[in-house]
Amino acid sequence: MQFGIFSVGDVTPDPTTGRTPTERERIKAMVAIALKAEEVGLDVFATGEHHNPPFVPSSPTTMLGYIAARTEKLILSTSTTLITTNDPVKIAEDFAMLQHLADGRVDVMMGRGNTGPVYPWFGKDIREGINLAIENYALLHRLWREDVVDWEGRFRTPLQGFTSTPRPLDDVPPFVWHGSIRSPEIAEQAAYYGDGFFHNNIFWTADHTKRMIDLYRTRYAHYGHGTPEQAIVGLGGQVFMRKNSQDAVREFRPYFDVAPVYGHGPSLEEFTRQTPLTVGSPQQVIERTLSFRDYAGDYQRQLFLMDHAGLPLKTVLEQLDLLGEEVVPVLREEFAKNRPAGVPDAPTHSSLLAGREVTTA
């Protein structure tokens, strides 16, 4: 399994001090968090894409390219890339370029985002969100796999004899995760292509997440990519830890109450009962995360949200120390126990290249 972190890149006042970081400070903090992730032994850093306040990561490949130059092992990803409002040609080129710069340490998560006004800002109609996701990805999939593409669809200018440059590194496109919280059409899309399916696993109950993953696994097998157990699943999760669980709850509560992703709603206690949010000791985080397998099955990637809601950088780095030193080593060992032999590892550029060489030999 791969373990890592994903960031939404919000610029939120610290409710305990009232201070709001500048955009520059927040961007630099995200870089520091990525570097810390590699230092403590995590596998993945993923950044969101947003084009509206209070968020700053409007150009994920710019940030990931900078991080690539300062890391050696970290897999660089997104959470998510807006397949609906970005031009698939630009996505193809940007991520192929990033692949070359990062020596293949790149994958990408496609998604529709959660901010409605973005659609008209980029000349799109939110009512076409699902159709845009389906058509744009169909083109992107071809651009990475065909040297010359002729294309005509509903939502962009036709292409005639077009070649996306640079070509993917080693002719191996970045592995694609399709991220969705509630849309069965996206789970179907991931299954159709044999790509990965990522559920952010923050807002919803375990029953809902299980239904989405079960649908994806069933349809993955239907399209002939393997057994349901061989489907590639990723999960998110949100944690806050201190050595003593009571200290964790007391410290995190003011941040939870104003968090842009779930503040001003249910209480912290209600939210932790009804969703995978875990606020407590490292052992509690371990136990809760291991329970994800009860409804998701054996899966390939676990990402944690740890740096939002105005939490100071110092606090986030302390969280990453706990995650890397006390939580992830135990999770790696426990998730490996009784893992069926047929369950694949998380895809990497190396494994995809090896698989391609086998099929073309």
Describe this entry's structure for a reader.
The protein is of the alpha/beta class. 44% of the residues lie in helices and 14% in strands. It contains 13 helices and 13 strands. The chain has helices at residues 23-39, 60-69, 88-101, 118-121, 129-143, 184-193, 206-222, 245-258, 268-274, 282-290, 292-296, 313-336, 349-360, and strands at 2-7, 44-47, 75-78, 81-82, 107-111, 149-151, 159-162, 175-179, 196-199, 233-235, 239-241, 278-280, 301-304. The strands form three sheets. Strands 3-2-1-13-10-9-8-5-4 form a nine-stranded parallel sheet. Helix 1 runs parallel beside helix 12 (313-336), helix 3 (88-101) crosses helix 5 and helix 10 (282-290) packs across helix 12 (313-336). The protein is globular, with a radius of gyration of 20 Å. The two termini are 28 Å apart. This is LLM class flavin-dependent oxidoreductase. Pfam families: Bac_luciferase (PF00296).
Which parts are unreliable, with pLDDT below 50 for 5 consecutive residues or more? none
* Physical arrangement of strands within the biggest beta sheet: 3-2-1-13-10-9-8-5-4
Secondary structure: helix percent: 40-55%
Number of helices: 13
Secondary structure tally: strands: 13
Ordered list of secondary-structure elements with their pairings:
Layout: E1 2-7, H1 23-39, E2 44-47, H2 60-69, E3 75-78, E4 81-82, H3 88-101, E5 107-111, H4 118-121, H5 129-143, E6 149-151, E7 159-162, E8 175-179, H6 184-193, E9 196-199, H7 206-222, E10 233-235, E11 239-241, H8 245-258, H9 268-274, E12 278-280, H10 282-290, H11 292-296, E13 301-304, H12 313-336, H13 349-360
Parallel strand pairs: 1-2, 1-13, 2-3, 4-5, 5-8, 8-9, 9-10, 10-13, 11-12
Antiparallel strand pairs: 6-7
